[in-house]
Structure formats: C-alpha cells, structure tokens
Amino acid sequence: MPLQGAPSISRTTPTARGELNTPYGGGLVDLIVGPDRAAEMKAEAKDHPSLTLDDRSLCDLELLAVGGFSPLTGFLGEADYDRVVGERRLADGTFWPLPVTLPLTPGEGIDEGKTLALRDVYGNLLAFLHLEEIYRPDKGREAALAYGTVDRKPPPVEHLDRTPGHYAAGRLEVIRTPPHYDFVDLRRTPAELRDRLASLGWSKVVAAHGSGLLLRAGEEAARLAARRIGGGLLINPVVGVTRPGDAGHYTRVRCYRALVDGDGPCSPVLNLLPLAGRMAGPGEALLRAIVRRNYGCTHMLVGPGHAGPEADPAGQPSYPPHAALEAMAEHADEIGVQAVESEPMVYLPDDHRYCPAGEVPRGAATVDMASSGMLEGRPDLRRELPDWSVRPAVAEILAQASPPKDRQGLTVWFTGLSGSGKSTVAHALVERLAEHGRRCALLDGDEIRTHLSRGLTFSKEDRDINIRRVGYVAGLVCQAGGTTLCSVISPYRAIRDEAREASRGNFVEVYCSTPIEVCELRDVKGMYAKARAAVAASRPLGFTGVDDPYEPPVDPEVSLDTSRQSVEECVEAIVRKLLDLGYILPH
Ligand SMILES: Nc1ncnc2c1ncn2[C@@H]1O[C@H](COP(=O)(O)OS(=O)(=O)O)[C@@H](OP(=O)(O)O)[C@H]1O
Ligand SMILES: Nc1ncnc2c1ncn2[C@@H]1O[C@H](COP(=O)(O)OP(=O)(O)O)[C@@H](O)[C@H]1O
C-alpha cells in the first residue's frame, strides 16, 4: 500500500554543467515538522504508545528525516518491501537495493490506525509514526534474496534473527533527529553538505568511505580518484550509531580530521554519514551510493570487499571480492552514481611520491606498505612507520588512543584473609607508586563497608555484592585512566575474576597468602578470638578462614607471605612486577 500524507520534497532540476548531482528521485525529502506542529506533538505524545528505537532504526529514521534515503518518505510498507526483496525495486519500479524497515511487536496499543511515539533509548521524543500497516515479513526470503545467503549468517542475517517478527509502516512526522554531541560540525545534513560542496564550486564529487585512508597509500588512492574524475574528494565515513564508550570511533574521526585540516583549497571535505552499516556487500554498496548521491556525490570509491563483513574463520568471504564493483557497474546509470575502483598505490622512495601500481616507471624502486588494519592499537608503529607511510598527525592520534601501559589505568587487587597484611602493604604501595608518578585511590574493605557497602552483612550474597561494587568502581576509574588499589578479603574466585573483567584486564592480583595461624596470632581487631569463641559456643559467625570459605587465586600476578616477607619486601615484589608489566617505568 503506498504511504499516505505529503512530506515536503524540494525539487531540483537535473544536473546542469557545474552543478551538483541531483537527489535520487529528483528532490530531497524533509520529514521534520515546523515548531508549531512539534509543540502539538510533544503535548500529544503522552496519549500514544511509545516505541524505543534500536540502533539501526534510529539511524534509518535520521536518514529518512533529512532526505538521505530520498525518495523514501518512510519505512517500507509491505508492497514496497516485497518488491525490494525480490527485485530491488520499490512498488512503483524505482530501483532500491535493500529493505529499510521498522521491526516491532504489535499489541499493547500498537495496532494499525494508531499513532506511535518513536523515542531513543534515553526517552527523547523523536517522531510520530501514524501506523498504516503492520505486516509479517518472510525473513527467510529476505535473507536469501536481499542479502544473498541462507547457509552462512553474515551480519545482516544475524540482525534479522534478533529483530521482532513484524514490520510497521505509515506516515512519519519527525520532531528532531536523534541527538549527537560529538563532531557536530561534521554532521551536515544532505541539504547542508550540498550547500558546502556548491560553495566550493564542486560538481563532481567522489565519496571515500574512510578506513583505508589512515595510511598515506589509501589517502593517495582517494586523492587520485578525485583527480581521475576531475572533482573533489568527500571523506564520508559510515558512523552509524556510536556510543560514548566507543573510543575507536573518536580516534578514527580525529584521524580523518587530521587529513583534511589545513590542507588548502583542494582539501577534501569530511562529513560523517549516519548510516547504520548492514555489512551487506553489494546491496549495501548500492544503498550507500544512493545515500551519497542525496548528499551531492557523483562517484563513490569502491575497493575489493567493499561494505562486506570480514571473511569467515575459513577465510571464505560472505560476498565475492568484486561483487560491490560489479553491482555498481550494473546499476550506475539508474542510480546516477559511478563507482571508481580504488587503485593500489606504491611508494617511489627515489621520487618521494606515490604512484598507481600499474604506472610505476620502468626500473623504479618501490616500497611495500603496511595495511591500515594493523595501525589500530599499535602505538609502537608510530616509531616504526616512516612519515611517508603514515602522516605524523595521524600516527600521533593513534598513539594517544593506545597509550603505553604506564599511561593506562590499573587496578591492583589485594586478596587474602583478615590480618594477612593487605591494607598495610597497600598503604605502603600508594607511596611507592607516587614515587613512580602513579597516583592511586585506595578502596579498603573496612572503610568501604562504612559507606559504599554500609549495611551489608558477611553472607555469601552480601560479600558478592560488596566485591562487585568495589570491582565496578575500580573498573570505571581504570577505564578512565586512573589507578585504584583494592584491599578486600574477596573470598570468591569468580567475583574476583569479574573485577578483572571490569578493569578490562589492566588488573594485577596480589594474593596475601599469610597462613591463618599467623593472621590469627596477629588478631589485629580481636575478630579471630571472637570467631573461635562463637564456634566453640555453637554460634558460628561465618568468619573467613574459621568457619567461612576462602578460595585462593589460581594464578595471581604476585603472591606474598607477610609472615616471611617484610612490608618493604612485599612492596618491592609488587613494584618489580609492575615494572615487568610496564605499568610503571624505572626512575
Ligand atoms: N564474618 C566476617 N568474615 C570476614 N571478615 C569479617 C567478618 N566480620 C567482620 N569482618 C571484618 O571485615 C573486614 C573484611 O571486610 P571485606 O569487605 O574485605 O570482606 S569481603 O571481601 O566482603 O568478604 C575484615 O577487616 P580487616 O581485618 O581489616 O580486613 C574483618 O575483620
Ligand atoms: N610483612 C608484613 N606485611 C603486612 N603486615 C604485617 C607484616 N608484618 C606484620 N604485619 C602486621 O600484620 C597486620 C596486618 O593487618 P592488615 O594490614 O590490616 O591486614 P588485612 O588488611 O589483610 O586485614 C598489621 O598489624 C601489620 O602491622
């Protein structure tokens, strides 16, 4: 059924010489309502059931709203969906490569004829969907025809398996696109980017995806593509939904920004594409091409394996390496975007320049390049790779993103019986680490139980809660680059392992293995005497080591016995280990 309503579509005339490519279908769809209607909708929203959009649907809504998916004016209804899956065409015959659908579960007020308030996970009201159709897709058919596979499960098919069994469609009214707070100046809408490209006088524009550009060879290939078409270069990474913790996203975009900063009048333009990548190979390449046309592009750089997932463990790719290029070639005229094949570049050290592999002058020396994939998480490459291979500014950002161990967060976790020396050694270690430039917070069991874990008992359940809290806090500090020393009995191995996870492995377990006889002799707080007396009187106290379990670590980084080693020796043993592991540097 065709969708009702009349979204705003700004028509542009076909491309004249010196003008940008027209939007796909002739005009840019704009689903954003005016301020008066937005105010009405906010007031009305409480009367409608809400649907919290998942990451994919959020991105799709954003692209629908701003015209990135023009000429689509909403999620696909059944007739469009069926034909897109079977023939890559909308019901009216327009070429459209992949379904753009809204999965949901009907019921609880979600029915045809009703209005749904679409929200993000934070509850922000984004849009109304006036439900005209709720239909049950044939997901097997979608997997087989749209994604070209049934036996193996590439990411788009896994996504299908996870989503609810119905799709919904109807008129969309959008109050606002999902909010983004990062790189706001790089998130231009199609209309805004078109203005920017037009202001540069560009008519031919080639979009490059991004990831391969971190190395100079990839960057040179993209710049060559722009020269080949006689146009400008748009660096256009597909960012989809990113989360605050996705450090890789910030690092990548910072690197791309370093590529375009201060590069003069022919500088590439950088803009982020809020498309949720499906990793659907050729179908996705076509979808990206259409979206990029809507942003003003005429060409798209396509390399082998474009828009596909990594090969499976047997090395088998989900889509043939050149499938995206072939699909683009087949449909270029219809979608109005040409593929430009990414040419392998080689470096000519004698000439200090890059050149396409097929055009190396006879007899010239060439140098092989590293692949861009090896750059991430390898700060050492900054030293190994010369400037001609990776831009110093990019290398610096990559290095900052993966600081050496001595500048990463750390949790030192002391475990052992009461009186085994955990707190005494931890306090001494705080001072030694400060000497090495590491300032630490100390979470001591006793103290934690007076505030963070106030009211908890020493039952197994409460000890687990207590230790999870300590592990969680230490993990947060660690991930933000800080150091915490935790001194808690933490008698259960499994929960200590959880704490290690929370610190993402930047975790040094120090086992105070002091024998219970010694701990008991010390009996710093008289607790052992109390526990023994209680046991003798058949009123067990559940005191660790007396009548409650302690599970020693299997393979701690450091093992101490404070009945044989002095406090200084214990601290020295830990410092040696931290030096070995690189968490501190010698001074
Ligand atoms: N039943 C029982 N079992 C073990 N310990 C007990 C108990 N009751 C009180 N205490 C005192 O509490 C301190 C240990 O607290 P923790 O938070 O480290 O324990 S746990 O990790 O949650 O098991 C520990 O203090 P420190 O000796 O300073 O470590 C104990 O003296
Ligand atoms: N080598 C040593 N390391 C740590 N503590 C020691 C050592 N030798 C004696 N002690 C004494 O043992 C007691 C250990 O108590 P504490 O550090 O509070 O243990 P825990 O935190 O494991 O309960 C302290 O009174 C401390 O002075």
Automatic annotation (TrEMBL):
SUPFAM superfamilies reported for this sequence: Nucleotidylyl transferase, P-loop containing nucleoside triphosphate hydrolases, PUA domain-like
Annotated ATP-sulfurylase PUA-like domain residues: 22-176
Metabolic or biological pathway, per its Swiss-Prot or TrEMBL entry: Sulfur metabolism; hydrogen sulfide biosynthesis; sulfite from sulfate: step 2/3
InterPro entries: APS, APS_kinase_dom, ATP-Sase_PUA-like_dom, P-loop_NTPase, PUA-like_sf, Rossmann-like_a/b/a_fold, Sulf_AdTrans/APS_kinase, Sulfurylase_cat_dom
Top-rank taxon: Bacteria
GO molecular function: adenylylsulfate kinase activity; ATP binding; sulfate adenylyltransferase (ATP) activity
CDD domains per record: APSK
One GO location term (cellular component): cytoplasm
EC number: 2.7.1.25
Catalytic residues as annotated in Swiss-Prot or TrEMBL: S490
Catalytic reaction list: adenosine 5'-phosphosulfate + ATP = 3'-phosphoadenylyl sulfate + ADP + H(+)
Function of the protein: Catalyzes the synthesis of activated sulfate.
Family statement: Belongs to the APS kinase family.
The protein, known as: Adenylyl-sulfate kinase
Organism, scientific name: Aquisphaera giovannonii
